From TrEMBL:
It is found in: Membrane. InterPro entries: WAK_GUB (IPR025287). Keywords: Signal. GO terms for molecular function: polysaccharide binding. This is Wall-associated receptor kinase galacturonan-binding domain-containing protein. It is a single-pass membrane protein. Its main location: membrane. It comes from Hordeum vulgare subsp. vulgare (Domesticated barley).
């Protein structure tokens, strides 16, 4: 798939850590909410390692708080995680399973683009590149691929005839239209090369994977239903003999 502006497929990220004098200590994983009272934003309980910054509800467990787990409580009802991309809308948390270290979330940036409708400016990114470091898209999700191509493009027209694609409400006059393909299984390589359309740029969006047969025309509802994310336990800072030690909980 050819890149175009902000349209691109999943890129493999390599995280670099500087050498430090860290001591690996086997520690018993703390139970969520232990030693402090959980907070709530809307219908979602916010507890360790997540924490709230809303001035009215205060912070939950996590001392000191972990930056990537910072949750904003919008209108005292919508818990939001920030995007790793500046000025891009983040993720609404639908629910959290602390035992499974997983949660369902909605990519609000995608809904912003869909609501824009006829717009020639599309700051549209793969969902995966918007996630902060501890969070991972679970492989149980299916994927929705959005193609940005001209309506007359041969590959897109053929796919539409085969009912593989559905036209969305996002376009730029007569220049291009966005199409959706649903039901794409997880690709461990992150390339999704088998779903490329010549002359069309694309982005990949995870959607609920409970059904192997989903209708691409329901793309907006699929976005709103959210997708499954997991997280890695954050480093916990302990103090031994006044010397800071980073501890990674047993997984």
């Amino acid at each position: 798939m050819s890149p175009c502006c902000c349209w691109f497929l999943v890129l493999a990220g390599v995280w670099w850590l500087p050498p430090t004098m860290l001591v690996d200590v086997v520690a018993e994983e703390q139970q969520p909410g232990g030693g402090c009272s959980a907070k709530k934003c809307g219908n979602v309980n916010i507890s360790d390692p997540f924490w709230l910054t809303d001035k009215d509800t205060g912070r939950s467990c996590g001392h000191p708080p972990y930056q990537d787990f910072d949750v904003a409580c919008v209108n005292n009802s919508i818990p939001k995680l920030r995007s790793s991309i500046p000025f891009n809308n983040g993720f609404e948390i639908l629910n959290i399973s602390y035992e499974q270290r997983s949660f369902y979330a909605v990519d609000l940036g995608k809904l912003d683009v869909l609501n824009a409708g006829n717009s020639c400016v599309l700051p549209f990114y793969n969902t995966s590149v918007k996630l902060n470091r501890p969070f991972r898209i679970d492989s149980v999700n299916l994927n929705l691929i959005l193609y940005n191509c001209t309506e007359q493009d041969g590959a897109a027209a053929a796919a539409r005839r085969n009912r593989e694609l559905a036209q969305t409400n996002v376009s730029c006059g007569n220049q291009w239209v966005v199409f959706a393909r649903a039901g794409v299984p997880h690709d461990p390589s992150g390339t999704y090369a088998g779903y490329a359309l010549k002359g069309c740029a694309a982005v990949v969006v995870p959607v609920p994977g409970s059904s192997a047969r989903v209708n691409a025309s329901h793309y907006e509802q699929l976005f709103k239903d959210g997708f499954l994310l997991t997280w890695n336990p954050p480093h916990q800072r302990l103090w031994w003999h006044a010397n800071p030690v980073l501890v990674t909980p047993v997984q």
